[in-house]
Amino acid sequence: MSTVTPEVPESSLEYAADLAAVASLLQIGAELGVDGLLDSGDSFDAAELAGHAAVPQDRAAGYLRALAAAGLITDTGTGGRFRVSDDYPALRYQAGYVSWAMNANGPFITNVREFFADGEAASRHHRRDGRRVAVSSRWIGERAFYPPVLDRVEAAGAQRVVDLGAGAGRLLIEQLRRDATRTGVALDISEAACAAAREAAVQAGVDDRLQVAVRSIESLVDDPAPIEDADVIQACFVMHDVNQDPAVLDAVLVRCREALAANGFMAVVDAVSYAPRPRERRFSALFTYLHADFMGIRLPSEQEWEDKFRAAGFAKVQCVPQVFPGGRLFVAFK
To answer: Which UniProt keywords are listed (predicted)?
Structure first.
């Protein structure tokens, strides 16, 4: 019996090999903590990278050599200084999907037999690394789901914006940079993320207009003070976590509607369960499966998301498919 090897287009092989290499090289930078230096767009040299990562300079130089050989950074011609390539943002975005799938969710994959045997016990022992989740989400989000929210807020001329599960605050800080009269509240349960948001706000010169609150989204049910009179309440891929207890998510949405200013709206980007469209079905299948079977989070369908907003009393709900496979932007008007 002969074995026939199916032909794979050369372009697909090249793309797969390139994506694997880019994802691995950028993940090394993220693990070293120099992803912020690369993302800044500023020039740098081996000494600066070594100082940033607290590693020997010769090791930093070796890493830069690999990045340059891969075309991810280019020599500026000024004494060994480099800056990222023009296509670095696009490559980082693509690498974000690999990083999320294989690194952010690495504990699930590596310990899959333990999860299959006893999911509750395994989840107590094998937790995801918050930074890895945040890094991969940022690499994807800055291209896949931040822009539609930015556009909605700009079009509305919103003056007070609250970001639920804001992480390091990049989206909200960009919104404050775009309008010198805009104020914002970044709410996140992670003290480390909130500290990073405060630091980033200082660097961006918007710290006088940004309030950072170390709070869970669920806490808004009993104390909605951070969201009172907001023109926009936004949340990117965090509300499905609240849906671990659907009744709590329902209560949060009610509080958000009540707290919004008269013409305010919520802008929620999140995932739907097993999105069927050909372009998104594979990644959506992974996203849905990992959340349901490893994190105990059932993703609502598109219709169920819309029903939740309407049940919370929102007058109108719009649903817009996103670049992110399985992602939807729900705009719910008070």
So the answer is: Methyltransferase, Transferase
